[in-house]
Amino acid sequence: MPAGRPRQFDPPTALNQAMELFWSRGYDGTSLQELLAATGLSRSSLYQTFGGKHQLFGRCLDCYREMVTTAMWERLREAASGRAFIEESLRRTLAEQRVPGGPRGCLVLNTATEFGHRDADVNRRVRAGIDSFRDVFAEAVRRGQADGSITSRDHPDRLASYLVAGMGGLRTLVKADESEERIRAALETTLRALDG
Asked: Going residue by residue through the chain (196 aa), what tens digit of pLDDT does each one get?
């Protein structure tokens, strides 16, 4: 029996290229033709490998969640304290103001805004992303409370939920081109939740 025709593309690379496009333009703002151009896939290859635009988007959300949370856990391991990790994570939003092409925000939170409650599968993936971010922040709070850098005695999960919401708000301000002074003020107010 003759061997099947070998794939002429690398699925993980195509997935990353699609993720970058969705991250920049959103789901509705990304056409199938743009996906094919960005990934170099034929229509049949995209459907055979990923099942279509919607399924590809779901895979991209999962890929993004894994990429971001892996980087967050690594930064937490290397941080001098739990609070230092949280401060550094929030301050990274300011750097997004200077990204060429403009700030993209967070693909998970952008998707929550774009989709609302209209798609159960996407909502499940968005919640998984938010839960993953919350888990890292909760561990950072526990570490900070143990090392004395966070004096608030509030429950780590409650503070972590507040920090995820704060991060989303800061990214929204950056995307709205708010002044750096006002973003810094909002950032410092968010950090005050860590003080007892």
From this structure: 344 444 566 888 999 999 999 999 999 999 999 999 999 999 999 999 999 999 999 999 999 999 999 999 999 999 999 999 999 999 988 887 777 777 888 999 999 999 988 999 999 999 999 999 999 999 999 999 999 999 999 999 999 999 999 999 999 999 888 998 999 999 999 999 999 8
What ranges do the domains of the chain cover?
57-194
- In CATH terms, the fold of domain 57-194 is Tetracycline Repressor; domain 2 (1.10.357)
Whether pTM exceeds 0.85: yes
Among 117, 81, 111, 82, which Cα is nearest to 171's? 111
For residues 184 and 95, the answer to whether their CB atoms sit within 8 Å is no
